[in-house]
Amino acid sequence: MPTVLEALQNRSSKRAYTNEKIPKETLEKILNAAALTPSGANMQPWVTYAITNEEVLKNVGDAVIKKMDEGVLNDQFIQYYPIKWTNPYKKRRIVTGAGLYKHMDVDRKDDITRVQMWKDNFRWFGANTVIFVFTAKANIDEAQGAFIDCGAYMQSIMLAAQDFGIESCPQGSTTEFGKVIARTLDIPENLALLYSVVLGYEDKSSKINAYQPEKVKLGESVTFID
Ligand SMILES: Cc1cc2nc3c(=O)[nH]c(=O)nc-3n(C[C@H](O)[C@H](O)[C@H](O)COP(=O)(O)O)c2cc1C
User: Fold this and answer.
1) What 3-state class would DSSP assign to 120?
2) DSSP label at 204?
3) 3-state SS assignment for residue 176
4) Which CATH superfamily does the domain covering 4-82+124-207 fall into?
5) What is residue 1's predicted lDDT score, i.e. its pLDDT?
6) Which of 150-162 are b and which e, b meaning 16 or more Cβ less than 10 Å from the residue's Cβ?
7) For residue 14, which of 214, 207, 224 has the smallest C-alpha distance?
8) What is the pTM of this model?
9) Whose alpha carbon is nearest atom 31 of ligand 1?
């Protein structure tokens, strides 16, 4: 069993999975642990759909890909990324994306492969478990606290998964198509999709999973005031 520090160090986003199923009991343990995540006023604003049904996942993926193929750029409840990118974030995004394509020997101008790689998000990278996290629209209408709580919940899921040798990929790509996903899943009207997390057993033979984007050094993000 990894220590928390080891789980933090071992985790990275994985984008290729085997078709091995996560036992229901294990998934329940992960979600029970994640449910211990602290939240402001103990609101526990996450409303979670843990989907392992192959047909349902295919339908959700098909619905998003159809939208993409129609040229729809997003169909979302919340805007995840900045509208105007500024540095150093713009640069980090470019370096991370370019690094992944270089690692995969995909040419910068090869839009077809790049779009295909993005669409892999909606095929869940071959995994058969996806956790969709919603919150009540009323929580985020005029306040942002639920985003903080649900972000912490996301990390709890991914770290708890490490205990069972289960890897993950958080997905803001589903945030961008939250409305079509909610409609396909027939989710109650009062809920908004925040994100999803793919969970599964890593395909160790896959090249893409070896990609490790660079992280900034402590001094770049932390100011100590001693
Ligand atoms: C909220 C959030 C949304 C993300 N969305 C996606 C996504 O849609 N597709 C994807 O492949 N990776 C996605 N990622 C993974 C990031 O690209 C990844 O965390 C980042 O490059 C750092 O790499 P690491 O997770 O391996 O440390 C997302 C990460 C977060 C936290």
Assistant:
1) helix
2) T
3) helix
4) NADH Oxidase (3.40.109.10)
5) 87
6) beebbbbbbbbbb
7) 207
8) 0.98
9) 170
Q: Which of 11, 12, 13 for mutating ligand 1's site (highest number of atoms within 8 Å of CB)?
A: 13
CB atoms within 10 A of CB 204: 11
Q: Ligand 1: does its nearest atom lie under 6 Å from the Cβ of 12?
A: yes
The pLDDT of residue 108 is: 83
Extract the tokens encoding 51.
Answer: 């989907």
Kindly report, residue by residue over 90-136, the tens digit of the pLDDT: 999 999 999 999 999 999 899 999 999 999 999 999 999 999 999 99
Domain ranges of the chain: 4-82+124-207
pLDDT for res 86: 98
CA distance 93 to 82: 12
Q: Provide the pLDDT for residue 18.
A: 98
**Ligand 1 probe mutation, 94, 171, 211, most atoms within 8 A of CB:** 171
* Residue 150 amino acid letter: C
Instruction: State the amino acid at position 88 in one-letter form.
Output: P
* Residues of the chain under the 50 pLDDT cut: none
Whether ligand 1 lies within 6 angstroms of the CB of 195 is answered as yes
